[in-house]
Amino acid sequence: MADLDPDPDPLPDPHSHPQTSAAVPAPADAAAGGLPARWHALRDSMRHLVAFGGLRAMWSGQPAAAIVESFADALLGLVHARLVLVRLPDASAEVLEVLRTAEGGLTRPRARRAARRLAPLLIAENVGARLRIPSPVGRGPLSLVVVPLGHETLAGFVAVGSPAAGFPDELERALLGVATGQAAVALREREQFELATRERAEEALREGASERRALDDSPPATST
Q1: Could you tell me which residue, 55 or 109, shows the higher pLDDT?
Q2: CB 3.0 to 4.6 Å from 131: which of 26, 44, 85, 144, for a disulfide?
Q3: pTM (two decimals)
């Protein structure tokens, strides 16, 4: 005879004493039939991250300034930041600087003033630390994190700020790491492309100069 499975939900013994257990609170949004707010934020971040990955194809062949500008714009939505500042030295030893805010509409002079206030914080000693600072673009404090944006000979920093006191949390730090890594690869590829283009141009100039010297040094043709 086959063994019978035990009753998965036996009736309680009326003579036994009921066991008490501590109540487990439900998530805040569970009573309303929805997912917790954290899951909504995670789903939204994943959607932004997928869209962010598509930027790599768009960055191909673009100058560094265009890459940095679209990177800053995308980073705002990825971690729901209030502001993003990217500072990166370019090949001519000048500083490429882009500041974006969630509200938008900053005039160029105001954006430059805000960037100047933040620039002293973009140093290696502040990488990874959560800095609490007055907002340079509005009222109230900001939690600011500095992330390195390095690629071989060029190295810069990204500052990302949010009014949330706990910003960035572990998820937001992971997203920032992935995003800055992708931007660094794109900038490195752009740098290598520009270097190869300059080398080809210089080689073509050298070959042209060599051919001209050869023609100048050749003896004149004699008539018979």
Answers
A1: 109
A2: 144
A3: 0.67
